[in-house]
Amino acid sequence: MDYIVEVRDVCKAFKETQALNHVSVNFERERIHGIIGRNGSGKTVLFKCICGFMTLSSGEIIINGEKVKPSVAQDIGIIIEEPGFVGSLSGFKNLKLLASIHKKISDDKIKETMIKVGLDPQMKKHVRKYSLGMRHRLGIAQAIMESPKLLVLDEPMNGLDKQGVLEIRDLFKELKKEGTTIILSSHYSEDIDILCDTVCEMDAGKLTRIR
After folding, report:
1. CA nearest 91: which of 122, 68, 58, 55?
2. Model-level pTM?
């Protein structure tokens, strides 16, 4: 089996709280993997550990054959919690600013990505005036614009209306066809049922494979 992410006996504790309790799971390439669980179950902590945002208490996480190290940039598209944008800039200018860090993509690629997620790259409206749904569309654009092979998306459908959810589901299906692996969480069981090839449930820091 060809795994893009291997989580090996991972524990993460905050003082007296065991956020992750001996979690082991592998995620196969070019599939969509769902993680469900109540708020506080450990989903977001696991996502942050996969992305290298947190130091593990024990265990290890392997991505593309290399051990994840905190603060070392990974080739991952990420949505964890509310995306942070500069409120006084337009959506396009925000993405252009972020794209300037790695200098991997052109303005045309940014515009193409915005259109993919249902945003107008020509719109001058400042991001602080965006609706919640528009901010989440912009967050998805930021996550996918550099074409990472792995997406880690914590509640990517938040704030989207019914049509928006349908459009983003179709986008994720298309990305999977193009070879992208997606690990996502969602409070909406329909998202999980429609999109996900595998499903795990997180409860009190423990992960159980459902399918």
Report:
1. 122
2. 0.94
